[in-house]
Amino acid sequence: MISKTEYAPYFEQYIQLVSINETSIIENLKSSQKDFDNLLRNLTKEKHNFSYALGKWTLKELIQHVIDTERIFCYRALCFARNDKTSLPGFDQDIFVANDNVSKRDYYELLDEMAVLRKSSIQLYKSFSDEALLRIGVASNNNMSVRALGYLFSGHQIHHLNIVKERYL
Fold this sequence. Notes:
mainly alpha; two-stranded antiparallel sheet; 7 helices; 58% helix; 5% strand
């Protein structure tokens, strides 16, 4: 059972989307990636640059956001697992999206990148001991455990997949 003291209240919306009690971090990572890839690989080309409203991200921007966020959270997990006590900064997702090159990138290469990144995240989590998973670090001025971050990867991806289903299809 994961404690609410292992993550900031903001992340509850993502944590509640995963099967913490029934499924391991690794199983959640595999399952959420499979669902993400299965849905997004089968969309028509017209959807790749689609945005459901003015000022909202395109589907390609959404995928890049999931990639960027997982990379940042992997770094956090690695630092915390290795017992680095440095307080890590937050990041502004809108600045990241405004400064990516995603409009010029191939949609399927983005999906491939996400798949490779997720495999890397799984390998990272397989390398952590039970003790390391319980370590707590500080990012964005909030405590976060390595374990909570592992579930957060899947929850964040599921959250955005739900948005795709509700607003992009």
